[in-house]
Amino acid sequence: MEKEKNESEGYRVAELDRQAKYVVLVLVLSGVFWLLFGTLLALVASLKMHAPDWLSQSSWLTFGRVRPLHLNTVVYGWASMTGAGVALWMLSRLLKTPIFLRGYIMVAAMVWNLALAVGSIQILAGYSRGIEWLEFPTPVMVVIVLCVVVMSISVIMMLVARKVKHLYVSVWYILAAFIWFPLLGIVSSLPIFDTPTVQAGMNWWYAHNALGLWFTPVGLAAAYYFIPKVLGRPIYSYGLSLIGFWGLALFYNWNGFHHLIGGPVPTWFVTISISASVMMVIPVVVVAVNHHMTVVGSFSAIKYSPTLRFVVFAAMSYTFVSLQGSMQALRSVNEIIHFTHFVVAHAHIGLYAFVTMMLFGACYYILPRVLLREWHSKPLIKLHFWLTASGIILYVAALQYIGFFQGLAMNDPDVPFTETVTMTMPYLVARSASGVLMAAGHLIFAWLVFKMAFSPAEEVDTPALWEKIRKEFAV
Amino acid sequence: MTRKSILFFGILATFLIAMFGMTILPKLFVDEHVKAPEYFTPFEITEGHRIFVREGCIYCHSKQVRPEGFGADVERGWGRGSEATDYRNLLPHNLGTMRTGPDLANIGARQPSADWHYLNLFQPRALNEQSIMPAYPWLFEVVPVDARPGRSGIQLPPEFQIEGKKVLPRDEARYLVTYLLSLDQQITGVD
Amino acid sequence: MGKKEDFRDKEDFRSMEELHESVLRKEEQIPEEGNERGPWWMYAIIIGTLAFGFFYMGRYLGEISHHPHVLFTDRGPAVAEEAVFDPMETGRRVYTRVCQACHQQNGAGVAGAFPPLAGSEWVSGDPQIPVLLVLHGLEGEIVRNGTTYNAPMPGFGRLLSDEEIAGVVTYIRNSFGNEASEVTPEDVEEIRADASERQRAWTENEVEAFMESRDIQ
């Protein structure tokens, strides 16, 4: 009896995956395309930092246009689209409901791609909106937000039609992300912030929340889903999940002004943001404990499961980057590291070591299930992990080390400014080298995804696990 | 959690309260003090600001001076601590978050030589071999020496001169330099 | 069993269908949730963070107003400013800040754009000349060491105090191989007052005329 029930449930999950197939595929493939494009831009920008006369004849390829476009393509292309695909798939599984409005979502994904293409050309041609994280001209941004709204409606419809009573923690995060991001996008596009310093406040409220209220919830939802799933064990504590979620909702919202410490904005807003940034320690530690205690005792599983390896790397990075962020917000630390490469590296721990690695891990789990095919090459997955992991570690180590000393030098008026530039040069070269490592990883990932999506691999019929198979960690 | 109404309410409430606190409230506090002085901003400056934004200068040059006692901005001679009234209400805000290059909040007062700016935009390495600033050749045109009589080219060191040619700043470069020279927080003043 | 392990021989997954079936059979479940309390130190961190956060907010909120830099406005003058005026030290700072961009760290200037200060007769001659040029600037063509220079130098009279000008002129007169007398802030004050009507920058001819009229070599 029991077995029969399980089997029918299993088939229902297969049916959900089958229905999710094209939505997930379109979003992930688009994301991978923008990842490659964004990586190319990153390499160009990084090389220009130590070879400033390279490609300097063309206005379209100047550092001041390539660098913002790198951010926008990886943020609104790769991380947002892939993240949306991963979130919708998880939600369908968690609510035992097929993804609603599948046709509309596919159209929205296409429009989204088109908007990204138009926005990219506009930035390169010099029509940037000129606000960090919001460089796409407002109409492009509004179109992207509307595409997400289509998915938000689908999320709410799924929630209403759900076949489970209890809502798992990942559902809370996904629902929150799909409500927060459209609101963020709409508010940031309003033309009411028409004095420079007020606009700066809005700018950093938006930019910090784009990470904190859109990518972080999707990333954490994935961690909460895949860690217990791959290990086949329950998540450590429901109570801690609750504290973690509501702590994030309460405190993350208020962090924006810590990007303007010492700037021409009212001091008390800055102080509030610093306090809120410190308070972020609470949800971060709670989530870290929750994840760690779930994995503890089964750490060896990361030897076998690519998904788990990426996800655990990402979850640890989340803890690290958040605690570092709380420290950086303090005035005494910020005085040194503000305006230096330290912060650039910090942003990359957040968006790369946490969000991007999490999405890689999620893709390794999801794609075989929706495509009913296996990954083409196990060693290449391993290579992908080591290239990207060592790349981002080198990146962060080089830039945060020199960023700290750059900040000290900048705060010493007797050091000529030029010296704060020359001292960073070897580390900027190291950054380019780390970029090559990560780019190589991305090419491998893209090759694996495209190979899997477009050429059936009949000869591979084992799940993508490394070394000896351990039944309890089946994928 | 099983009640989606609590979830919805909590998600919306936390967001909206913070949105009010971090965007609307600063607007209420700052706007009236900034909007009062009516600046006349000449076309050259608004156009220069547009080019400043277009070329992405802000990704390496902040435009905000931290006050005395916080960092060494004042000691470096970058000006006094910036105020909200210093920004002429030109949008986007361009406060910046990075100092790969020096702060520009007072560059007009600190470096009032237009020729220096032209040379620095055309080829930063001509002024400082260690500079990693990009060159902006598309803001200039290279013409034969005898073309456009009456306009002398920008001052170039011998190794950057082109035989029989002179380098003239285009209008865009002139606007950009006019804008840079207008960046002087001693003029805009504290309220 | 050979050394090279092959999943196909070993495990019970014989076909794609069977593989995924077996995987899917494990998948029906939504992850389960335990209900542990968590370690005690986690609660200590929570309470400590709350306490620190609220303390920080209360301590550094400053005034509820539109003013920036509230925490930094009521400081007394820094002790360093009371220090004795050291012309070379002040001069070096001002030079780095203001002059170095054009005349370069070694005073050699940029050939064809900005003339050198090293070995310049005007710099190491009568102190009035360099002070006046710093105050009002210089324009028009000049030829030095066979190179023509034509970039106008702006005046810094508004930007720099008497002490700073005295310092920087003393500094350039005694650096880059130059050797000449010191200039005091009082000298600068006097020169500034004498030339207070002048608005324009100097030209080479005007400088020479000035030198003749004052009988300066």
Structure description:
The complex is a heterotrimer of chains A (475), B (191) and C (217). Chain A is built from 15 helices and no strands. Chain A has 475 residues and is mainly alpha-helical. The longest helix of chain A is centred in the first third of the chain and has 49 residues, at 2-50. In chain A, 62% of the residues are buried. Chain B is mainly α and 191 residues long. Chain B has six helices and two strands, in the order ααααββαα. Chain B has helices at 4-35, 43-54, 107-110, 114-122, 171-182, 185-188, and strands at residues 140-144, 165-169. By secondary structure, chain C is mostly helical. Chain C has a domain at 81-213: Orthogonal Bundle (Cytochrome Bc1 Complex, Chain D, domain 2). Chain C has helices at residues 7-10, 16-25, 40-60, 70-73, 87-103, 121-124, 128-136, 162-173, 185-194, 204-213, and strands spanning 137-138, 142-144, 147-149, 153-154. The longest helix of chain C is centred in the first third of the chain and has 21 residues, at 40-60. Chain C starts with 6 loop residues before the first helix and ends with a helix. Classes of the chains: A mainly alpha (475), B mainly alpha (191), C mainly alpha (217). Chains in contact: A-B, A-C, B-C. At the A-B interface, helix 1, helix 2, helix 5, helix 6 and helix 7 of A face helix 1 of B.
